[in-house]
Design brief:
Blueprint lengths: L7 E6 L5 H14 L4 E5 L5 H6 L10 E4 L11 E6 L2 H11 L9 H6 L7 H14 L5 E5 L4 H7 L1 H8 L2 H14 L5 H8 L2 H14 L3 H14 L1 H6 L1 H7 L5 E8 L2 H14 L7 E8 L1 H5 L6 H22 L4 E6 L6 H16 L1
Parallel strand pairs: 1-5, 1-6, 2-4, 2-5, 6-7, 7-8
Antiparallel strand pairs: 3-4
Helix pairs in contact: 1-17, 5-6, 7-13, 8-9, 8-11, 14-16
Adenosine-5'-triphosphate binds next to helix 1, strand 7 and helix 17.
Protein name: arsenite-transporting ATPase
InterPro entries: ArsA/GET3_ATPase-like, ATPase_ArsA/GET3, P-loop_NTPase
GO molecular function: ATP binding; ATP hydrolysis activity; ATPase-coupled arsenite transmembrane transporter activity
């Protein structure tokens, strides 16, 4: 069965099962078929960087990658790759709103550090931006492992909560400060609870007198960019549409990994549609099929391993439209894994 590509293809799964490798090989396979592909990694560990030979300084920039450096292709194709950088995303939206001068803010800088808490929200904003600009047929998303993936799915909820009614109320006051009110701190003090007020005054003492002003500026900046945030909320709804997205839950053919995948599926199910795929990576079946031991014990070992792998696939596969199998690649270099797995996707595309 061929798997038609969709606008967004999501690779999720627990740690180390091959999400990054399979996402990269999928991007290669699609681009070698002539599709315009953007591969985005929202994994702060940025393993994609090693696979694609990118550098930290490439973070936040679109980098073109030639498929011929991975696979034997008749004509040279390329795809774009993006290592997500929350600070670059903030810079982009700030510039779009003409707020370049306000970007140099201590709090915004902390929030948009790779582990600053805004990673997933900024990821949703970035994906939405590239979807709207229409430059790509498909955006392939390599997501962070386990719980961080759920954080990504819940990011739009966080956006909704952040820009709720009380935020708008707060900003009514902050807005006065932005338009030159003479006593912003006093006004701000009125609207925050005494607990927050205490905290702010404590932070003001330890971080310098301008802390509250910097805080107000940061919140004001986010408010002025709110449309970028709120338009990203639609992304969540789109993901649930079969015609819009392909979900690939990646696991590897080991007992505990399949168990972990099932538990992740439960957490993520409410965000997915039923048209999803289980990608079982590192399958041993192709090797076992070609292994013909003579020794009785080895024969038993072979048949036990085959049965166990098959049972895992059947057990896990019940919850998916289709199970895709990718074999263990006997090579040391991650790049070779990508090349071989791209072949696997090619077979599924034709
Ligand atoms: N089919 C395969 N055969 C052999 N090795 C593989 C295969 N798929 C992936 N690998 C290797 O397994 C390791 C983990 O793969 P990868 O980084 O893609 O996993 P991941 O799920 O993205 O991990 P993380 O959760 O840390 O982001 C890498 O060294 C990769 O090259
Ligand atoms: Mg990864």
């Amino acid at each position: 069965m061929s798997i038609p590509n969709k606008k967004v293809e999501i690779f999720c799964g627990t740690g180390g099962v091959g999400k990054t490798t399979l996402a990269t090989s999928r991007a290669i396979a699609l681009s070698s078929q002539g599709y315009k592909v953007l591969l985005i990694t929202i994994d702060p560990a940025k393993r994609l960087k090693q696979v694609l030979g990118l550098h930290d300084s490439d973070s936040g920039n679109i980098i073109s990658i030639e498929t011929k450096s991975f696979a034997e292709v008749s004509k040279s194709e390329s795809f774009d790759a993006l290592l997500l950088s929350p600070s670059k995303t903030l810079e982009r939206i700030g510039k779009a709103e003409g707020l370049e001068d306000e970007l140099d803010n201590r709090i915004l800088k902390v929030l948009t550090k790779p582990y600053g808490g805004m990673n997933e929200i900024m990821a949703v904003l970035e994906v939405q931006f590239h979807l709207e600009n229409g430059n790509y047929d498909t955006i392939v998303l390599d997501t962070p492992p386990g719980k961080h993936f759920i954080d990504f799915l819940e990011a739009t909820k966080k956006i909704e909560n952040f820009f709720d009614k009380s935020f708008v109320e707060i900003f009514k006051y902050l807005g006065k400060k932005v338009t030159g009110d003479s006593a912003p701190k006093k006004l701000f003090g009125k609207i925050v609870s005494s607990g927050i007020k205490k905290l702010l005054s404590y932070l003001e003492k330890v971080t310098g007198g301008d802390f509250v002003d910097i805080f107000i500026d940061a919140v004001g900046f986010l408010y002025k960019c709110r449309e970028h945030f709120t338009s990203a909320i639609d992304f969540q709804k789109e993901l649930r549409k079969k015609e819009f997205s392909n979900w690939f839950l990646v696991t590897s053919a080991e007992h505990h990994k399949v168990g972990e995948a099932m538990s992740l599926l439960q957490d993520a199910q409410k965000f997915m549609h039923g048209d999803n795929f289980l990608a079982v990576n590192k399958c041993l079946k192709p090797f076992l099929d070609n292994w013909h031991p003579i020794d009785k014990d080895l024969k038993i070992l072979k048949s036990t391993m085959l049965t166990r792998e098959n049972e895992l696939k059947v057990f896990a596969g019940k919850n998916f439209k289709k199970v895709l199998e990718f074999s263990e690649i006997l090579a040391a270099e991650p790049k070779e894994h990508v090349t071989d797995l791209a072949e696997g996707w090619n077979l599924l595309l034709t």
